[in-house]
Amino acid sequence: PQAHGAPGFLPWHRTYLLDLERELQAIDPSVALPYWRFDQPAPNLFTPDFFGVSNAAGTVQFSNTNPLQFWTTDGVQGLVRRPRNNWNPATQPGPTVITEAQTLALGTQYPAFRNMEDNPHGTAHTRWDGFIRQIGTAAKDPLFFLLHCNVDRLWAKWQRQFGRFNPAQAASYDSNAGNPIGHNLP
Q1: Burial of residue 148, with CB atoms counted within 10 A of its CB: 0-12 exposed, 13-18 middle, 19 or more buried
Q2: pLDDT in tens, 147-167
Q3: How far are the Cα atoms of 27, 147, 148, 185 from residue 2, in angstroms, in the given order?
Q4: pLDDT-derived band of residue 7, with 50, 70 and 90 as boundaries?
Q5: Residue 142, pLDDT above cutoff 80
Q6: Neighbouring C-alpha atoms within 13 Å toward the C-beta of 88
Q7: What is d(CA 33, CA 29) in angstroms, rounded to the nearest whole number?
Q8: CA distance 97 to 169
Q9: First-to-final CA distance of the chain
Q10: Strands, E, within 33-85: which ranges?
């Protein structure tokens, strides 16, 4: 939870993803983490051959050739992820998830933009029951990484759109005194 609810949310998750991607690239230099654009239907993502299809109990089913069928975390094999409220992520955008355009329009200053932690980020997490819904278990689901790659992609687009790369520029980061430890720019 320390990586949430404060200015370090976006850079913490960027670093987390970059570390994972570099570890994977040490094995295979051609690896690049993909993203899940959760404000659009994803017909190619939620299939048995890619990220699986949830049954009524929330157990994610994979094809016999999908290596994710052997996904194991904490010594337990399998994934639990079920869309909530009859949502079909293959054919529908995430219900109540704000669009990319709405996200980029949250504000030109970092403190306003980082509100995207709630929506679209948090809303994309909570459209599911299962591992991905809770902070403590979300990273047990490989979909977590695609979700956060999209969050990082949106932040990068916002940074590019408004020229927000300079840490000396107050609009680029929230360097407010009084933030929790780990969430102060200096």
Answers
A1: buried
A2: 999 999 999 999 999 999 887
A3: 30, 19, 16, 15
A4: confident
A5: yes
A6: 6
A7: 12
A8: 30
A9: 21
A10: 53-54, 60-61, 72-73, 76-77, 81-83
pLDDT for the residue numbered 44: 95
Q: 172-185: buried (b, 16+ CB within 10 Å) or exposed (e) per residue?
A: bbbbeeeeeeebbb
pLDDT at 177 over 70: no
> Residue 115 and residue 60: Cα distance in Å, rounded?
31
Q: CB–CB of 42/36 below 8 Å?
A: yes
Cα–Cα distance list, 91 to 46, 48, 53, 73, 82 (Å): 10, 15, 13, 29, 15
- Neighbouring-strand partners of residue 157: none
| DSSP codes, 116-179 | GGIIIIIHHHTTEEEGGGSTTTGGGSTHHHHHHHHHHHHHHHHHHHHT---TTSTTTS---TTP
Please name the residue that has the structure tokens 């996904």. Answer: 71
Q: Which two tokens stand for residue 104?
A: 């980029």
Q: Given the structure tokens 């029951």, which residue do they identify? A: 129
Confidence at residue 172, expressed as pLDDT on a 0 to 100 scale: 83
How do residues 91-128 score in pLDDT, each as one tens digit?
A: 999 899 999 999 999 999 998 999 999 999 999 999 99
